[in-house]
Structures are given as structure tokens and as C-alpha cells.
Amino acid sequence: MRINTMIKNLYFLLVIISAMTLISCSDNTVTNNNVITTKGVFILSEGSMTPGSAKLSYYDREKDSLYLNIFNPSNLGLFPDGMIIYNDNLYITEQGNYNSPGTIYKTDMNGKVLDSKSVGTNPYSLTQMNGKFYVTNGPAGTVSVLDAGLNTVKTVNVGVYPQEITSNSGKVYVCNTSLYGGPYDSTISVIDANTDDVVKTLRVNRDPSAVAITNDGKLIAGCTGTDGKIFIFETLNFTLTDTLTSPYGFSKDFSVDKLSKDVYFIGSSGDIVRLNLETKTFTKFIAAPTGTSFIYGYTYDYINTVHYVLDAKNFTTSGSFSIYGASGSLIKSFATGLVPRRLVIYK
Description:
Layout: H1 3-12, E1 29-30, E2 40-45, E3 55-60, E4 65-67, E5 80-86, E6 89-94, E7 102-107, E8 113-119, E9 123-129, E10 132-137, E11 142-146, E12 152-157, E13 162-168, E14 171-176, E15 187-192, E16 197-203, E17 208-213, E18 219-223, E19 229-233, E20 240-245, E21 252-256, E22 262-266, E23 272-276, E24 281-286, E25 295-301, E26 306-311, E27 318-324, E28 330-338, E29 340-346
Parallel strand pairs: 1-4
Antiparallel strand pairs: 2-3, 2-29, 3-4, 5-6, 6-7, 7-8, 9-10, 10-11, 11-12, 13-14, 14-15, 15-16, 17-18, 18-19, 19-20, 21-22, 22-23, 23-24, 25-26, 26-27, 27-28
């Protein structure tokens, strides 16, 4: 979420007064930051406008315990949003104050900071390709290219307020969105990771909010809104091969099942929706919780056939991390930090 939109939500969502009731709760929450990670899930919470409120949490699947904050030393600053695993290290981007440089952190797999560098302008999301990192800078309309030492080696101009980003087979795909109260965009920029130049601009609907690579190597892009437009491109000549309409709208976060034709995402009302790319059918797989709820992050663990869902609730109180089984039934929920946004599975 962009910082200005985040601030807007922090104030306007205060009017929501009903409390979400969890079907299953857990008291297996560990408040210290001493952990040796093995197999589990990293959870990144944006926090509030108060420095130090952001958290890096870790769910240990074998111990069935959630470690609330493992980032050390110091704190994650303001609005961390991007997180990936690369070469057995975590890389996290923190946006910082609006329209100002942010920070990229490199940590070990236990959350200990190994390196950090100033980067871009409100760096949001990141990906890696060819040993380099690519970081979106919303207000600047650019992507920062970093070397293995986290040094900025090039700045690439893309579209309006770039946010989500992914990469595959030498190409980097950037979602260009809108500046709150200003210009908007309806494109995805394609960067060649060999030259770090934009080589193609793909036209979709306004505010593309998620991109992913399907099992057959195509690019799938979803655009925010109740009309639920999803676009599929082949990645040789970037020809549009299909346009689909989700009856449940589209919000964010594609998750590809590597063992089937299914792709999951968050619908516009907070439902987890399953799309079968072969039959082109949509199914409401997990219904949005009742009460105060804002489903803000999602991923599917296709190895263990469980679904992980993040609920930011009213953006001012602790969120939740929920685990759903293969059938879509709730197994367990844990309290998280404020505004949980990003999930990365550690296999």
C-alpha cells in the first residue's frame, strides 16, 4: 500500500467499530526475538507512523509457534513492505518518511541485520534477477537497480507510482499504479535484466496490483477493483493471450500452485479466490471474515497444502496471521504486529 493511501486508511478505518471474532485462536506466541529458523513463514508488518512499530515475525511450522519480532538489532523504521529470500538471506525494503529515501536491509535467516543501505524514494517492493536487486520507488516513478553489495548502480524510469514487481527468465515486470489525487497509470513496464532498460510497456486496466509467472511461463496481471480484470501475456513477444473477469473482483497477491493449473488471489471483498487457468473458472475458496477485517496479504504453500492469510483489521490494532487447510477451513490464527502485509515461505 502506498504511504499516502496508508495514512488515509489509518484515519478513515477508525469508523469501523465491529470486532472480528476468530474461529480458532492460539496462545503459542513468543515475544522474544531469539529464534533459529528451519521451516516456516516470515511475516512482515508495516506498523504505524510511529518508528519501531513495524515487525518481522516468524511462524515455526514444526513448533506451531509464532515469534512476534525477530528483527535485530534496532527496528524496522517506517512502513517496511518488500521482502524476499535470496541466497539464504532475507532482504527487506523500508519506505521511510514520505518522498524521502528508504532503506534496504540484508539479514540472516534468523533476522539478524548483516547490512543495510539507503535506497531510492519510498522503496516498496523488490525482486532479484541476474544477481541484482530491483526495487520500486513509488513517488519517483523509478526502479532502483542494486548490485550484490546493495549499491545502486542504475535508476530506471518506469510509469506512475510503481509498486509490485516480479522477475523471471531475464525480465523484470513492474506494476505502475496511481499517485493519490494525481495522475494514474494502466501499464506494466518490462525491464531487460541484461541491459536494465525498459523494453516493453504492456497495457492493462488502471492500477495493476499484482503480477506473477504461471507454470507455463506466462505473465499474469491483476488490476484492483470490483470489475476484477486479469490479463495473461506470453513472454516471448508479450502478446496478450487472454483477458478474464473475476466475479469476486481483484485486490492483490497472486499465488501460483506449482502442482496444478490453479492460481489464487485476494478478491476485492477480501475473499481468497481460486482461478483454474485451464477451465478459466473462478471459485470463492475462503470467504472473507465477518466484522472488522481487511485482508492484506496471502500466499499458498503448495508443498504442505496450507493457505496463509494476513488480516490488517482496522489498521490501528494488532492484525492476524491465519492458517487454512487444503479444503479452505480455518485451522489456527495468531496475533501479529500492526498492519501485516507480506508473507515469505521458508522451505
